[in-house]
Amino acid sequence: MLKSQLKSVTDRFFTLSYQYLRPQLMYESIYDIDFGLLWDDGVRHLIFDVDNTLISYADSDVSIQCINLFKSIQSIGFESIILMSNNSSVDRIERVAKQLDLPAITFACKPFVFTMRRLLNDRSMNIQEVALIGDQLLTDVLLANTFKIISVFVDPIDTSHLSYLKNAQYSFQRWILQSFYRQ
Ligand SMILES: [Mg+2]
């Protein structure tokens, strides 16, 4: 009896995580994303996570490669390209935003919906035209899937020398990703 109850709880857990934590698209890095294809699929608004998506936690400046990538993304014609970070360091995120010449939202509290909802409303974005790119299932992908906007997952840039909490998040994420492959 207990065994069958446990099985039903774990089945429910995996069904829910498959529904909410599974990215629609997965790439090794932002440099592997086919932004032209996203454009062809009707995406007009791109929202990027910052930490471990664009730069590692150890870096404070974006690379030339990253600057060039964003120039080429901008040349495609996207209506908005916005940085949205959970980081509470306004200085850090504003610095990245300035280097890429993009607007940024700090302390976005992903996966809570209020910041995204405000952004979608303020800019009158059609959710079918929005893609969110990030390195964390529990924040970026969960938020995107909650709104049913396109979730684009990239492998985190560097998961060494992180806090205990961040390590635990990435370990859980790796375990969840492996469970998707097993299904
Ligand atoms: Mg991140």
- CATH topology (fold) name: Rossmann fold
Report the CATH C-level class: Alpha Beta
Number of discrete domains: 1
- The residue fraction in helices comes out at 40-55%
Largest sheet: 6 strands, parallel
- Could you say which small molecules are bound to this protein? magnesium ion
Strand arrangement across the biggest beta sheet: 1-6-5-2-3-4
Description:
This protein is of the alpha/beta class. The chain has one domain (23-182): HAD superfamily/HAD-like (Rossmann fold), CATH 3.40.50. It has seven helices and six strands, in the order αβαβαβαβαβαβα. It has a six-stranded parallel beta sheet. The longest helix has 20 residues, at 2-21. The protein is globular and about 60 Å long. It starts with a helix and ends with a helix. Magnesium ion (MG) is lined by residues 49, 51-53, 134-136.
How is this fold's topology laid out?
Layout: H1 2-21, E1 25-27, H2 35-40, E2 45-48, H3 64-76, E3 80-84, H4 90-100, E4 104-105, H5 114-122, E5 130-134, H6 137-147, E6 150-154, H7 164-182
Parallel strand pairs: 1-6, 2-3, 2-5, 3-4, 5-6
The chain binds magnesium ion.
Summarize the structure.
The protein has helices at residues 2-21, 35-40, 64-76, 90-100, 114-122, 137-147, 164-182, and strands at residues 25-27, 45-48, 80-84, 104-105, 130-134, 150-154. By secondary structure, the protein is an alpha/beta fold.
Spell out the key features of this protein.
183 residues, alpha/beta, Rossmann fold, six-stranded parallel beta sheet, 7 helices, 6 strands, 49% helix, globular, binds magnesium ion
